[in-house]
Amino acid sequence: MMTAASLAMLLSFTAFIPRDLIRTNLSESADYLCDSELFGEMWEGFAPSRTDHYADSILLGIAWQYDSSHPFKSVMESSYYHRDDANENVNLQNAVRSALPADQEYMRYWHGSILLVRPLLMIMSVRGIYILSAAILSALFLVLLIILFRSGDRISAVGMILGTVLTFSFFVPFSLEYTWVYLIMLTASVVVCLSCESIRSLSIVLMVCGIFTAFMDFLTAETLTLTVPLLLGIRKLSRKGVSERDLMKGSAGSALSWGVGYAGEMCLKWLLASMALGINAMDYVAANLHERTGGLVLSEDYFSFFGPVRANCKCLAPFCFRTIGIVAGVIILLGCAYIGYVYRSASARGRVAVIYALIALIPFIRFLVLRNHSVIHYFFTFRALMAVVLSITLMMGELLQNAQMGEILPKPKR
């Protein structure tokens, strides 16, 4: 409760930034967003390159409507100007130009990223924030790779590179909505690789990750802040000689810690909103949760059980490259399974590989539970599959450890 109250207070402080100080850059941001498509593709016809300026316009609209006369209420309500007959980028432009009042609330999320966005709008437009985000995320990624290579964990470094490339994560900085999960994931991964020496410390880091994911994220690829740091943490502790049993229990406990942090922070937001606005926010939240799990979607991927999984996997390389990509992907997966099983090292710890495999299931469970959301927004929710790529890489590293390629290929185990 103290954490939620502190975060709410920090958000409320940003409401005291005068609108006149952000008006120019916000107006420029609105013009820029109006000149681009709401869901434009940076590579034409390529869904993984699709940006989400629709969500960015809403976020900036909420940031614009923060009111210093009742800061806590405006933060809890998270409202913005909206008209059904106009795009959200046009609504944002009209709201800033004509000082139109908010008439649409968005209380189910914290929108904690405004804690960063509103001060930044005093000195730069959204284009500048995109560039700054790209620089920060690139720096964090390079720092993580340097840490992994210097520690001798080349397998994890290769897994992170593959995961980043195959999920086309280089498009992430071009949408504010996508950025926050990556910022938390990379920061947590650096912390885990530098300082986590026990299961307990890993659990604490992941609980903090869950809290800040609930605070910052707009429900994008939120499981990344659990799966990637957890995989890197289990890999690190495994290399330090922690027993398989402790790793199994620790991974389950760490995942639970993340879930408690995430769910707890979200529930506290709804409680605080109910108190501030004098309503029962749970009725509103329940309706939106139903929409994301089982609302009507005119898509064949929704109506089949594994449809959400298929929709998301079609954005992952190489499966995104139509028939030839699907064939190549299946061959790669079968090849990994064959080599990992037939040529596995005698020193391989099978239960550790099982832990990696279980963690890799988390994104698929997410797709199936939030099936409506995962079908509609497949073009960004698919990036949760980075954890699957990293997991497969770590499994191969575990199964083939201490084996030399020259010894692997000619001498299959029987």
SSE arrangement:
Blueprint lengths: L1 H13 L4 H16 L18 H13 L5 H7 L1 E2 L7 H11 L5 E2 L8 H7 L5 H25 L3 H13 L9 H20 L3 H18 L7 H16 L4 H34 L3 H14 L5 H4 L3 H7 L8 H21 L7 H11 L1 H8 L1 H6 L1 H4 L4 H14 L5 H4 L6
Antiparallel strand pairs: 1-2
What does this structure look like?
There is one protein chain. The chain has helices spanning 2-14, 19-34, 53-65, 71-77, 88-98, 114-120, 126-150, 154-166, 176-195, 199-216, 224-239, 244-277, 281-294, 300-303, 307-313, 322-342, 350-360, 362-369, 371-376, 378-381, 386-399, 405-408; strands at residues 79-80, 104-105. The protein is mostly helical and 414 residues long. The chain has a two-stranded antiparallel sheet. The protein starts with a helix and ends in a 6-residue tail after the last helix.
How are the strands of the biggest sheet laid out side by side? 1-2
Q: Indicate the proportion of strand residues.
A: under 5%
**What profile does the largest beta sheet have?**
2 strands, antiparallel
Which class best fits the helix and strand makeup? mainly alpha
Total beta-strand segments: 2
The overall pLDDT, averaged over residues, is: 90
Which stretches are poorly predicted, pLDDT < 50 over at least 5 residues? 404-414
CA-based gyration radius: 22 Å
